[in-house]
# Entry
Amino acid sequence: MRFISTRGNCTPAGASIAIRAGMAPNGGLFVPEHLPRLPSETMDPSLPFAQRAALILRPFFEEDPSADSLPEICLRALSFPVPLRMRSKAQAVLELFHGPTLAFKDIGARFLAEFLDTVERGNDRPLTILVATSGDTGGAVAAAFFGKSSARVRVFFPKDGVSARQRAQLTGWGGNVEAYAVRGSFDDCQRLVKHAFTIPGFSQDARLTSANSINLGRLLPQATYYVDAAVRFKAATGTDPVVIVPTGNVGNVTAAFWAREMGAPIARIVLAVNANRVIPDFLESGSWEARPSIMTLANAMDVGNPSNLERLRHLYPDFPRFKREIAAHSVSDQEIRETIRTCFEESGEVLCPHTAVGECVRRSHYAGTPAFIVATAHPAKFETIVEPLIGRPVEIPEPLAQILARECHEQELDPSPNAVPWAKIAS
Ligand SMILES: *Cc1c(COP(=O)(O)O)cnc(C)c1O
# Structure
């Protein structure tokens, strides 16, 4: 399998090259040249997740130097449960928050880390992974690469822009992971990372790689849990589910569309967005208009110009088709609060604010339809929002308790690229 750019005009690349590069050379995003049909073995409901994942991903890595290592990479990366919890005969929750940092981003980050660690084995100079984060991404990438000799991770986060628990997940590592508290915004952090790639010779010398959500190595493994959950949903209910995905930068939901195009038994995919409603508005008007992001309670979805939309538009280039395939609904902060409160009162189930966006869309638009929502994070990560609404503490899962107990290390940085000691950072 080769990967091409959403913007065309670049030499197709194999998996290792596309993943190591992060972005296609012409500024586009890598997408598979075609989406292979799922092998029939992947439809066996009894397959364990990591084995199903390896079978699903095999065609994407065929002819790549990593091909033989793929089953091993999947076993190591996908080593925690990804349960589809049935709430009733025709309704379920896909829980993606049982990894080390309690959000779905652990899955992509751990696959990327195991993959790079495998293909880089024997290289005596480590990669330098730069990550700008508004919260969840940096923690997942730090946790995934912590202790790996093939790479060092440098995380840039806005000094006053992350919660106490997110900060612990960024700064509690040490070793090959360093965290930089930037005196500025998330956009400043992103600018610093982009700048590093433009310093002459630096990118090669430091072996820079980016681990942001446009990296194919994070996206491809995400397709596997949609296949897994849809197969199990179908086995349990006899029907293809509607899949409702809390969406921000459109990475997670793009993986769902790829899974469906490959033949996963999914009836329809629905984007659940917060008050950042650029996608529902695009579906309605047909003309694309990016906007500055608005802050909401579901802050990991506060995106006004979603990067991975380019991949979805590449998948369905013709607008009438795009509109037929894609449904999107927006949810307000008030609705997020009501959904968290009602869900808890009705069944004792505690949702994180992002998952509540999905649940609110399900209740408003798909109440009588066989469906599962995707639970993207554990509520304990967002306790300052959730606890006042349910009137009791949220239990702290073990991986979070462990990182909260560690000592924090961070260094402050000014947001000006020229004030950053780049050489020191990458050594
Ligand atoms: C990142 C994130 C999202 C949004 O996922 P995208 O792939 O950016 O659409 C939703 N929920 C949580 C908890 C996240 O961390």
About this structure: The mean pLDDT is 95. The longest helix spans residues 216-237. The two ends are 35 Å apart (CA to CA). The pocket of pyridoxal-5'-phosphate is lined by residues 103, 105, 136, 213, 246-253, 300-301, 354, 376-377 (CB under 6 Å).
